[in-house]
Amino acid sequence: MGQIAATLQDRFGPIESQTALTSIGGVVSNDLIRDTIILIAVGSLGIMLWMTYRFRDIRFGATALVSLLHDVLVVVGLFGELFGLPGWLMDVSPFQHVPQVPVADASVGSALALLAVAAGLVAVGVGGLRRRDVGAA
Q1: pLDDT digit string (tens) for 18-73?
Q2: φ, ψ for residue 91 (rounded to 5)?
Q3: How far from 59 is each of 3, 42, 55, 68, CA to CA, in Å?
Q4: For residue 136, what is the DSSP state?
């Protein structure tokens, strides 16, 4: 790296060094925020138009946007603390509002009861599948 820097200095003059850039000015910050909002709006409009054109129904486009918003909320809720996001932003996620419920120790009786309910539901499902009126292929 030293040889490249020396060659550049010989050709273009001394290189002014800047040790670190630790802040972004207000104009750049406002431009980044404005451009981000514009790009999100244009992208959402593009998704909505494409899904509406492709499936001939606007409900598919709206559903795609709602699922995209849900995905963002899930990521914010699950990884917000890891990313160091502020509390007000993490409170947007529905996962932050789960009530604290006291939990009792698990017992064999409760596990057997849940197993019996699951087996009963499987039996009902299998019985319903056998009674369907779809012809064999």
Answers
A1: 666 667 777 777 888 889 999 999 999 999 999 989 988 888 889 999 999 888 88
A2: -70, -10
A3: 61, 18, 9, 14
A4: P
> Would you list the DSSP string of 72-135?
HHHHHHHHHHHHT--HHHHTTSGGGG------PPP-HHHHHHHHHHHHHHHHHHHHHHHT--PP
C-alpha distances in angstroms, 29 versus 16, 25, 46, 86, 91? 25, 6, 26, 18, 24
What DSSP designation does 56 have? S
- C-alpha–C-alpha distance, residues 41 and 35, integer Å: 10
CA gap 25, 67 in Å, rounded: 35
Domain boundaries, the chain: 27-98
Q: What is the DSSP letter of 10?
A: H
Q: Give the C-alpha separation, 45 to 63, whole Å.
A: 13
Residue with tokens 């850039």: 21
